[in-house]
Amino acid sequence: MGRPTKAQAQAWTQELLDTARILFCERGYASASLDELAVRLRCSKHSIYRRFADKEALFVAVVDRDVARFIADLSASGAPGSSPYEILRAMARTYFGFGASRDHAALYAAMNLEATTSPRLRVLAKQWAAQALAPLQDAVAAAIPARHPGEMCEILIDLLDGAANRLRLSEDIPAGIETTFSIRWEYFVSVQVQDHCANTAGRDDLAR
């Protein structure tokens, strides 16, 4: 057989990343081995090493790809012409969907666990989080311009993450996802309205 074409090489790399992702989700970072990965792919470890220097480099590539896909989905949230608040809600719903996904959570858990003992991965985890949440923070800034976007984004994420963690234990995630998200979103909106009214009242008092 001749050398694979560029398209074939790219397709095999994607298969490698797909299989590695499954392995990391199932085994965690520490217990995942390139030996087992090679067996699953029916290839030699040399074929893996030709693309990635070691297990950490492979793991970084897997997470990099996930983060890029997450950012693309987040950025595509909201119908064209929607208001800033509608776009923010759509992004928050997309974020919540990822958070409620067991598949997404498994890779996230593997990353966080390894980051507790690996300074390099800890730095990368912070970078990945900043990259992934940048579109949501921009949407917060556009929808709630009077408040600090970083702080408001963190508050929204905290509201959603706790609910997503509990929802993943449910036997029927799709059945509860819309109701659960709507309750959290309505609470977030109500707090913003209350804060706005309080701030407006405070300014009126000062003007008297």
Report on this model:
The protein is built from 9 helices and no strands. The longest helix is centred in the last third of the chain and has 35 residues, at 173-207. The chain starts with 5 loop residues before the first helix and ends with a helix. It has helices at 6-31, 34-41, 45-49, 55-75, 84-100, 102-115, 119-143, 149-167, 173-207. The protein is elongated, with a radius of gyration of 21 Å. Helix 5 runs parallel beside helix 8. The protein has 208 residues and is mainly α. Mean pLDDT is 89; it is low at 200-208.
Q: How much strand?
A: under 5%
- Put simply, the count of helices is 9
Distance between the ends: 86 Å
Fraction of residues in H or I helices: over 70%
Encode the helix/strand succession as letters: HHHHHHHHH
- Tell me about the biggest sheet? none
Assign the structural class, choosing from mainly alpha, mainly beta, alpha/beta, alpha+beta, or little secondary structure. Answer: mainly alpha
Oligomer: single chain
Unreliable runs: 200-208
Average residue pLDDT? 89
Integer-rounded radius of gyration? 21 Å
Instruction: Tell how many strands the DSSP assignment holds.
Output: 0
User: Based on CA inertia axes, which overall geometry fits?
Assistant: elongated
Give a nutshell description of this structure.
With 208 residues, this protein is mainly α. The protein has nine helices and no strands. Mean pLDDT is 89; it is low at 200-208.
